[in-house]
Specification:
CATH topology: Glutaredoxin
CATH class: Alpha Beta
Helix content: 10-25%
Number of helices: 4
Number of strands: 11
CATH superfamily: Glutaredoxin
Order of helices and strands: EEEEEHEHEHEEEEH
Shape: globular
């Protein structure tokens, strides 16, 4: 059966399988600037993956800012990423103009492997490809300890629950 969320109250279909708490974090290949990065390139520490459709929208922008502010106090004990299909150049421009320091970006524009492997790629129901809104926390051993697929893409995630889950696995 197809997995769906809604986008402005219209059902859209997600590619891939749902990532659940207890799963090993799926592999992916993304871009940071023009450099290819993988899950293995992330440090073996608590990690937060904040998935957004596009940084050029209000909710996505606010989500990135809220997590950037929320993880500052954790410093080097965590690694935090905003993942989208935005081009790396747009991601870098956004972070520079908005003063984003704690959140790094990963662009899934090349092969959509993050979207497919983490079950967040909207594969049908929209005239363009986007990632659905989701948040994942991965512990230092690579296990998913928190997973939230926001049922309505235009709604905010549960910031407090995600940050508390991140704090719980930070060392």
């Amino acid at each position: 059966m197809a997995r769906t969320v809604t986008f402005k109250n219209n059902a859209v279909v997600l590619a891939g399988n749902e990532v659940k708490v207890g799963d090993t974090a799926p592999a992916y290949t993304g871009l940071q600037g023009l450099t290819s990065v993988t899950l293995a390139d992330t440090p073996a520490k608590a990690r937060l993956f904040s998935v957004v459709p596009s940084l050029d929208t209000g909710v996505c922008s606010l989500q990135t800012k809220k997590f950037d502010e929320g993880v500052k106090a954790l410093g080097d004990s965590v690694a935090c990423y905003t993942v989208s299909l935005d081009l790396p150049f747009a991601q870098n421009r956004f972070c520079s103009s908005e003063g984003i320091k704690s959140m790094k970006t990963v662009s899934d524009v090349h092969d959509h492997s993050f979207g497919k492997n983490w079950g967040v790629l909207i594969q049908s129901g929209l005239p363009l490809m986007l990632l659905t809104r989701a948040v994942f926390v991965v512990d230092p051993a690579g296990k998913v300890t928190y997973a939230e697929y926001v049922p309505e893409v235009t709604d905010h995630p549960n910031y407090d629950a995600a940050l508390n889950a991140l704090k719980a696995v930070a060392r």
